[in-house]
Amino acid sequence: MVASSSSKTDAANYDRASELKAFDDTRAGVKGLVDAGVAAVPPIFIQPPDDHHDKTPSKPTESPFIFPVVDLHGGDGDPVKRREVVEQIREASETWGFFQLINHGVPEAVLEEMMNGVHRFYEQDTEVKKQWYTRDLTKPFVYNTNFDLYSAPTANWRDTFYCPMAPQCPDPKDLPDICREILKEYPEQVMKLGRYLFKLLSEALGLKPDKLIDMGCAEGLSVLCHYYPACPQPELTLGTSKHADNDFLTVLLQDHIGGLQVLHQNQWIDVPPTPGALVVNIGDLLQLISNDKFISVEHRVLANKVGPRVSVACFFSTDFLPYTKLYGPIKELLSEDNPPKYKETTVRDYVLNFCAKGLDGTSALSHLRL
Ligand code: OGA
Ligand code: NI
């Protein structure tokens, strides 16, 4: 299926629908293309010229911005330290929508084994791995490439597996044994951390510590494990297109390769890969219930000549579960000067709309804005 010539890349020159189908049918993902030795990025992955990004990410010295870092050490005991931590989280959540977390309590051995587990899954025998390939989102373990392959304007240089972990934890026999144990252990650790973060975030909003947990923000957790193979022409495509996250909160573990960028004051800023740190970001649903006090910020992942890059994104959301609870701006935050900015929505309706749209560069919150 793969057009080997990079010269014929305009839409008129190929049958995009059949190329997408043929790629999907390989059930081997982007890694399959790279394993087969593609020397050029096939047309389905090529970003339109106006979306072409700078070939080299900005060097830290060129950027006047310092990516926020929050150190959780001691925040659980000492009230002075806790106030400091809440203040740092408030500042970062209002201005960046992102921060890096250090001394978060998840043991380094668990982080390392989670990364190893993702490598093992993708780097196992392709025929065995293919058995997990599906686009059926009701499955307990969903491995595929580009969840939005047929809806997004451009495919991304990335494969992903997705696994909902809470409120119902999966039956271990439904998970690949090559990473089964760590797929139980790591999300448990992230859930513990997430519940603590939601308390700090509640306080940062001026609410009682249990408010966001009582609202159900920490009820659902899904894990997305991304694999970004090395790319022969990284300037032509993206690992993940620009998007904001479709959840309350995301906790991301990334390896040392780099490529994640956040849109801050109209500039793409690198999220420095920091060993042992976790990246935390506000999702659309937290922006909605905080009535824009906290911001869900657009981010993307560059493709890279060097790879593979691996990341593990834990999404606090009940995703597609048929829950009917409605989420709108929190009443205590509203006043005459701060009227509600959003309509109410269920998590499911919001997520279904997000997924149908795919990563098309537009916001999934805008249709809920009053
Ligand atoms: C995501 C995401 C970033 C990364 O899963 O929503 O933005 O570094 N991932 O993989
Ligand atoms: Ni994201």
If you had to describe this structure to a student in words, what would you say it looks like?
Strands 1-2-10-7-12-5-4-3 form an eight-stranded mixed beta sheet. The protein has a four-stranded antiparallel beta sheet with strand order 6-11-8-9, with no helix packed on it. The radius of gyration is 20 Å and the shape is globular. It is an alpha+beta fold and 370 residues long. The chain has helices spanning 16-25, 29-35, 79-95, 108-123, 126-130, 180-204, 211-214, 284-289, 347-357, and strands at residues 69-71, 98-102, 142-145, 159-166, 221-228, 238-243, 249-254, 260-264, 267-270, 278-282, 299-302, 309-316. The chain has one domain (17-368): Jelly Rolls (Sandwich), CATH 2.60.120.330. The protein binds N-oxalylglycine (OGA) and nickel (II) ion. N-oxalylglycine binds at residues 224, 226, 240, 245, 252, 254, 260, 299, 301, 311, 313.
